[in-house]
Amino acid sequence: AIRSAITATGNSEFVSKRNHVFEEKLPIVMDNCFSKLKKAKDVRTALVAIGLEAELARASKKKVRAGVGKTRGRKYRTRKGPIIIVAETSEISKSAKNIAGVDVVQLKDLNVFVLAPGGQAGRLAIWTVDAIKKLGDEKLYT
Question: Which terminus of the chain has fewer CB atoms gathered within 10 Å of its CB, N or C?
Answer without folding.
Answer: C
